[in-house]
Amino acid sequence: EVAVTNGGRLQVRAGMTLKVQRKLDARGGAVVSDVGSTVELVGENDCVLCGNLAFDSLVCRVPGKNLLCGTGENDVIAINPAGNLTLTTVAAEDHVYLLPDAQEGTWSLAMGAGALTEISNVAVSNSVASGALVVANDSVDLGGNDKWAFIEPIVPGEEIVWTGLSALDPTDWTDAANWDRRRAVEETDAVCIPAGAPAYPR
Prior knowledge:
Elements lengths: L1 E2 L4 E5 L4 E4 L2 E11 L4 E4 L5 E14 L5 E4 L6 E12 L8 E5 L6 E5 L4 E4 L2 E3 L2 E4 L3 E4 L2 E2 L6 E4 L7 E3 L28 E3 L10
Parallel strand pairs: 1-4, 2-4, 3-5, 4-6, 5-6, 6-7, 6-8, 7-9, 8-10, 8-11, 9-12, 10-13, 12-15, 14-16, 17-18
């Protein structure tokens, strides 16, 4: 367990991997992370994440692990600009669970500009994301989520249609919010760019 108190600051240095099993609590301070650092959530126990938490790379690959995310006014899980969020398991039936730490609350996920995600086999509830749309492949929407897209397995040859509706950049080919399936284009897709779209890819 890691607790930051009395206005303190825990800095995860570049090249460092901090492994957390049960709790990362920064309600009394903050966690900041240098570029090139990693925080990995390990072990089978439930893990509480609360307070002002900023990660360059946040990783969890533990099947069945519950991540209980803080719902307080100042609780936020933030991924640095150009950082990484990796939440995935090998077996599709063994999810990582992202849940609020209070039954009626919502938890905040802030994605920095250009942050990358590798998210699959997760189950998510009551999350309000900001920044880029958060795409979760082969995952379960447990309800109450905003700015998340839950994607079914991709079938080779399926059609994906350009919409140009991203609030961040309506010309960005790689932004999932610009496509009707709310995911980025795969090599096996049949891409359709219709006339009359509000913006076109560059």
